[in-house]
Amino acid sequence: xxxxxxxxxxxxxNPQGDYxxxxxxxxxxxxxxxxxxxxxxxxxxxxxATLDALFIADHTGIWDSGLAHYANARLExxxxxxxxxxxxxxxxxxxxxxxxxxxxYNLARYFASLDFLSNGRASWxxxxxxxxxxxxxxxxxxxxxHSNRYQRAGEFIDVVTRLWDSWDDGALLFDKPRGLFADAxxxxxxNHRGDFFKVRGPLNxxxxxxxxxxxxxAGSSEAGKxxxxxxxxxxxxxxxxxxxxxxxxxxxxxxLNALGxxxxxxxxxxxxxxxxxxxxxxKAERQQLNAALMSDRMAIDLLSAYLKLDLSPYPHDxxxxxxxxxxxxxxxxxxxxxxxDYDPALTILELGRLLLQSSDSWLVMGxxxxxxxxxxEIYLSGAADGFNLMFPLLPGDFDRFAEQVVPVLKAxxxxxxxxxxxxxxxxxxxxxxxxHFA
Amino acid sequence: xxxxxxxxxxxxxNPQGDYxxxxxxxxxxxxxxxxxxxxxxxxxxxxxATLDALFIADHTGIWDSGLAHYANARLExxxxxxxxxxxxxxxxxxxxxxxxxxxxYNLARYFASLDFLSNGRASWxxxxxxxxxxxxxxxxxxxxxHSNRYQRAGEFIDVVTRLWDSWDDGALLFDKPRGLFADAxxxxxxNHRGDFFKVRGPLNxxxxxxxxxxxxxAGSSEAGKxxxxxxxxxxxxxxxxxxxxxxxxxxxxxxLNALGxxxxxxxxxxxxxxxxxxxxxxKAERQQLNAALMSDRMAIDLLSAYLKLDLSPYPHDxxxxxxxxxxxxxxxxxxxxxxxDYDPALTILELGRLLLQSSDSWLVMGxxxxxxxxxxEIYLSGAADGFNLMFPLLPGDFDRFAEQVVPVLKAxxxxxxxxxxxxxxxxxxxxxxxxHFA
Lengths: 438, 438
Fold this sequence. Notes:
2 copies of one chain form a homodimer.
Chain A lengths: L6 E6 L23 H13 L4 E4 L20 H9 L6 E7 L5 H14 L4 E6 L4 H4 L10 H19 L7 E4 L4 E3 L9 E2 L4 E2 L14 E5 L3 H10 L2 E4 L4 H17 L8 E10 L3 H14 L2 H12 L25 H9 L6 H11 L3 E5 L1 H14 L4 E4 L6 H16 L12 H4 L11
Parallel strand pairs in A: 1-2, 1-13, 2-3, 3-4, 4-9, 9-10, 10-11, 11-12, 11-13
Antiparallel strand pairs in A: 5-6, 7-8
InterPro entries (chains A, B): Diverse_substr_monoxygenases, Luciferase-like_dom, Luciferase-like_sf, NTA_MOA
GO molecular function (chains A, B): monooxygenase activity; oxidoreductase activity, acting on paired donors, with incorporation or reduction of molecular oxygen
EC number (chains A, B): 1.-.-.-
């Protein structure tokens, strides 16, 4: 791997920034987060900084505990990124979509179409969904079991990639004199019959420019890691130290090797919260502001949601009650493990407020030089191939990063200074997607 | 109704034009139909001509009888129109989506998001899907019964509109000092439990700019007409004469009145195939070209698909075998009826070739003046509020229409010369969408 290829994605879920309280910042956007122009400005700035992709997280429901205090209303990623395809040229477009509450034929079409619209810049962040609020919007009384969701996800991805492959690259003939639109021998029925899906095919969109839009997967449970190693191009992880990242990479390399895949074909992206502060005073001010903007209610709600356990009746100035058993836990097992890793002496409120400020991510706060040095060190150590940049405050923290940190990263030689030609898959140095029907 | 408000939509399904053989025309586009720039050019021309909307038909499968000769591969409407939202300002964006193979929560989000991205220009063309090829992509051995599909569609629309209503217009507070993002009393759970769906809500997108994106419905079976009268803003029909249109309008008015709705709030749009030819010689050449481009195979395939009956073993120089009984017919009942209305002495091949050139639509061929006169006459008679313009050849027939017919329509005072302000709903003179939770 060349050293100037650190991957950097502008990540967002809340359009105001990664914190549940980001929207309360005096400079936070209000109604404009429901306009295209807000995102167009962000996307163009990201492209001017030669970032690799816009990465939009998603739920298929509103996370509505404490609705009044934090309501993550927002636009839907596939439609938003399709619109942004029209106003950008090079940046990747990573849309989150759930395998639990959609049909593979529909998702295969949306992503194939987005890939054509963007000249090969589409990417699918695959999630299985873990909120009860989501399940309740799709006819279920409770979310499907963790193992069931991952089995479905595996089959779902296999169906989607085969649908993308159902037209060979040379299937379109446009032979007007002979009246041959397509070479019928190069258009394939799947006739898939699995545990979850029965899909005939072919897709009604030809094979997309990338063959397969870039597949991203987050989730570091056992099932998640195996799904990523077997099917993803990019894996979104949470690490808090270089040692942890290197150990994780090593584990994933073993999984990849066991599956006959090359580790270079698998990019690991760590979630970081980059915050540029230019003095100790600014840093202190920032921390004071955070403390003022967050509320106890938000902290308890977040911890309750992560643990799938209503903590409001528990004394908030005492440590957590016994945690759920991971093997039977249908929430985010990665997050459950991260919570276990905190000091068990922390009270519910202390832990909730910590999580509220960090999500599961590595907080990288300092001067532009310090932020750049830290990201470069993580990257050069091999602990991650790049980062999902989860800015606490949008657009402010991102603007400062683009203006101050990006030039330092480029000067250090760890970040590209211009886009490589070709599709997103090519720009990221990922291998061509093989056609299953070849 | 004012007389200068004829509604005109640029309609397409095949990106090369409405005929199955359109792609064979010497000037027909080839690979460019899979690029955004092809549609951007069309959309901008349509907006320059002050057309009301882009109307994109769709199937959730490929119509793959005779795949080699006619393969309707194309981009997906929601993603395509989201991209076009970014490069247009006024034109409506009508996307077809099926109630049979999607989930209401997902569709409600896509359309609400498109409505925000386009500043209130989204519209949903509601279809129930009738092709076996579609059913087979969604786990079914055969398509659901006609009555079942329409029952599901009714409930589906009710859930989607209530999801759009689940945030009151004033629900977003952004009260930063008090930490109140939303007024929780103005965000509603549906707790819907019906025959087909169980959906909790609320949506995770606030109420869209139009309240409800404009609802369009095509399909003139008894169930289709009742669905349209009870829930649609716009109804897409096929008529072949002014008398037929006026009788249809009268029937729909009675249905609307019986439901307590005002006929002015319900726009009827007829499908027409407008072709500008500037001399009898050009007309003859056009007809000869059509005859040369179509094939017997396409004709038999089309008629077989419409009748859900493989006609290939029947003698093609004899009339049709007995037609299916409408009451048990799960295809397009409107089309079945149109086929019944043709001269029963026509042979299978003759009828197939006729359908191949006309779809179900009124062919309006003549000089620009003649085309404009015919459209004005239909419109002023009250037989239709406007037209879905189904150009046989794209972009050529549309370019000629925009350059030659549109100025005549404007000079005649039957077409607006500039866009009205506001959302698509307002531009079309449709009433505000009431909030179910109000």
